[in-house]
Amino acid sequence: MEGVTGKLKKYQQIVQKLLMGYAKSKPAYGEIEVETIFDTQQNHYQIVHFGWHHERWIHQGVIHLDIRNEKIWIFCNSTEHDVAEDLVNLGVPKQDIVLGFYPPFMRKMSDYAVG
User: Fold this and answer.
1) What are phi and psi of 73, to 5 degrees?
2) Whole-prediction pTM value?
3) Which of 44, 50, 36 is CA-nearest to residue 65?
4) Which residues partner with 51 through β-bridges?
């Protein structure tokens, strides 16, 4: 990829490694599949659960991360994982993590980036 910075490439690898690790855990209920979706051109990364639970079809995005302006944005996390803390443990500084599911005024109160 032309124009990819070292920092962007590092963050792409970290995000993919993290999500692939999370995707190994299958829900304890139903016949649910876990799928990772990585768009490395646009820097969108997701985990999706889909399948049957009893007679009900499940299709849910459980984690959604983007990399924008060399920051990792967390847009959705409906799991028990502390994605932000796990990113920090993998070497991402807090100032490069944005809790995108919070409004900007609330982000200012966190230890993480505003945007």
Assistant:
1) -100, 130
2) 0.91
3) 44
4) 32, 58
